[in-house]
Give the backbone structure.
Amino acid sequence: MRLLHVATIGAAIGFGLFAGAAEAATDIDLFFPVPVQGKLANEMTRLVDVFNKDHPEIKVTAVYTGSYDDTNLKTHAAIQAGKPPAVVIMSANFVREYVINDEIQPLDPLIAKGGQTPGQFMDQFWPALRQNAMDQGHVYGVPFHNSTPLLYYSVDAFKAAGLDPDHPPATWAEWLDAAKKLTKRDGGNTTRWGLMIPGTYDYLGWITSGLAMSNGGQFYNPDYGGEVYYTQPTTIGAVRFLDELVHKAHVMPEGVTDANAVTTAFFQGRTGMMVLSTGSLSFVRDNMKTPYRTAFLPRNLVNAVPIGGASLIIPKGNSPARTEAAWTLVQWLTSPEIAGGWSRFTGYFAPRIAAYDLPAMKTFMSEHPDAKVALDQLAYARGWFATYNVIGVRKALEDGVQAVLSGKATPEAAMAEAQKQADALMRPYVEQTALKLPQ
Amino acid sequence: MTAGLLLLPSAVFLLAFTYWPVVQVVIGSFAERGFRGATHWGFGNYARLFADPHFGQALWNNALYAAGTIVPSVGLALLFAVGLRDNTRLSAALRTLVALPLLIPLVAAAALFVFIFLPGGGLLDWYLAKLGVASHNWLGDPSLALGSIIAITVWKNTGYYMLFFLAGLAGVPQDVVDAAKIDGANAPQRFFHITLPLLGPTIGFVTVIALLNAITQVDHVIVMTQGGPSDATTLLLYYIYQQAHQNYDLGLASAATVVSVAMLAALSLVSLRTLERGIHHES
């Protein structure tokens, strides 16, 4: 009796599977991170639902995978387990590491099917995004949402401090001066800081590299994944400037402040300025009660910012059917309409140039001058930080800068230590590439 | 024969999912892999591990963390258990209150505490400001961050350990206590000469559990600080996680795992032995 029962269930399951297979859509998964504050996960789920409705032959499952660093980790784990995700929204600068580790496929054949060369394909995106998306002429990532570090400032605080909100600081000298004027002290307590920056992992490395670039530096070798320039004068100068803001001018709080603490302080009027991603524009717009504006990241020598944000990648090891479906999803997500809508929802700028020709986007840009500043700053943007062992190499720098911000080390000593650690982390790659010589 | 057969399924799973991974980690700790290079076998991973200042820092942090969490949480748990052992309505309510953090997952608690610890605008600073204390960067100052992590661990675990002590106290025979009363022993004397010695096995057990927790719980570190600022809150398990998943250095991660587990096993053994020597077993 029991045997019969088991057999019936078995048959039912078998039949169910068979019936399912007959009409099955191609199942693919999309790994997506939420790197900035805001309701991004809800919107991504909604977008995927729209895609699934429009494409009955494909069934996309959106998988929330945490921060950029977590997403990288989970993607790696999935690849190692032999179950690579079909599409990942990957921090744009991690793409090189997947190329180095041979875990990602060039998108050239898929692009060729659409009748384009890799060059023609990338011409549809803003020039600053091409460096992180390509490697040696091949396309590996399709830019999805991108950002640059932006200076946000409170109009009320500027007026109260006797500063002109129409002329935000453009140089480091003006920046320090404005921060000093904005800082309000009450005895030993600071009731309003001049400036705050997020000092937590990922954000801090990004902003420090922006300062080093504004100081004329390159920060890393854009053409080779085994070199970073932490002890060069351009980086040392940037870290010294941070040290000065905290320990000499006392216009920025000591220690590490996370992004939530920075935005909370900005909304409560406890800091006059903050540096944050353009990706947080909508979050700030929705939560800031008093008027605020945005400006370029101030320069010491040149206007320059690193590109942040993410590209869509298709890891190796997916079946042709999955790859095909993945490519359909990638093209849909990066189409001007969807990319434009996502940009308006988040604050990230849309990587597709054509997105800005759409009427909805034109209206939006004229209504939101803060988003216009972010787009204008793109002219000065560069690719960012792509090396072997990129997270560890970046954390080495961040640990050093955190030590400086906390008053535990001098900029020179901290950067020397950071360089040493970064070199050790990149050594296996360097030994097999630049230092591997014919014998 | 039947017993062997009945045990077989669990034995298979134990072998496949517990012992085999342990063997793999030990083997992995001797494998030195480079980028696209051949694998060498030897003690290189261990040499690199002991030369790594981050490992030393993690070890030191973990020692501080263990001392800072075990002593107060076990002490407080004992205190609460003794104070709240009576079955009055008030102590029942207080017992529930103390045990409440036990119900909150560590990740959720950590996410809440991130907001409580917000410098300036957070709940903690807000109340401290009323007392005239200047605001602190609880999680962002390297000299405070580990202390903050310790504080939430104590808050989280004390109630749990209290439950063990309550159970232990219920096992203290009333006739011994009554005999002591008749002999004229006062409350502190009864506590130190009767209750505490008879609680010996419970204290030993709770200490070992607390020690294990100090090594195996890093959820709050991942949520609150990611080991920062500047390595101030990197615990051993977080160090292993960083090496394995951020730096893809499985050799170093395996070596660190072997060393940590060996130390943990040795410590557990020593603490159990020491405590057992002082235990008065009833027979």
